[in-house]
Design goal:
about 210 residues, two-stranded antiparallel ribbon, 6 helices, 6 strands, about 15% strand, binds zinc ion
Length: about 210
């Protein structure tokens, strides 16, 4: 895989670290920062700006380290961190996400899902013009795709590995629709696919 090692900006790294600390606690986060070579962030999160922060491959290593740290529980942990990341974005980065003052109540559910997924694409592109992400509205299920996914940069796996992304998209869709929807990663670059693809499944009424 000869993908270029893209750069992730401070705001997105900060979002992930705040979320990871919320979910894992300070000791848990510090342990994985050490094993993934990111100890410089221990007690020193990057500022909330769009300056370059780390390489995508380092972000991927952090994701892999969290999964290894928790073993069988790693996938669920990463989903929770993804959920907390989106919550942080709504709280602290609503302008970047383009959702400040937006009212979705009158829109049909599918429109709301497309709105929030397109907002995520827009925020990512604002943070890095090299990002290739888009929304596929042509199928029964709305899907979110990214061919520059940082979570699986340099990783190989027989099954999809972008659990943090699944958690963020799930929370984004819940925020936009008021209901839980199952998010399924049907394609993943770590498996050899050309992009990571996340489909928004049926609503699950809580
Ligand atoms: Zn991925």
């Amino acid at each position: 895989m000869a993908r270029e090692d893209a750069v992730i900006v401070n705001a997105l790294v900060r979002q992930a670290l705040v979320a990871a600390q919320e979910v894992m606690g300070e000791n848990g986060l510090n342990a994985v920062l050490r094993t993934s070579g990111l100890e410089r962030f221990i007690g020193a999160f990057p500022p909330d700006d769009l300056n370059p922060s780390i390489q995508a491959s380092q972000y991927a290593r952090l994701n892999a380290a969290i999964e290894e740290f928790y073993g069988r529980g790693g996938r669920g942990m990463l989903r929770r961190i993804g959920k907390a990341s989106f919550e942080y974005a709504v709280r602290e980065q609503a302008a970047l996400l383009g959702i400040a003052g937006v009212a979705l109540k009158l829109l049909p559910e599918r429109q709301r899902i497309k709105f929030i997924l397109n907002s995520m694409v827009g925020a990512l592109k604002k943070s890095n013009a090299q990002v290739e992400a888009w929304v596929d509205d042509s199928g029964v299920r709305v899907a979110y795709l990214e061919s520059t996914c940082a979570i699986c940069q340099g990783r190989t796996s027989e099954t999809p590995v972008c659990h943090l992304y699944v958690g963020s998209i799930g929370e984004a869709v819940r925020w936009a629709t008021g209901r839980e929807h199952e998010i399924i990663e049907t394609q993943c670059i770590a498996k050899g696919d050309p992009h990571c693809r996340f489909e928004v499944g049926d609503a699950r009424d809580a």
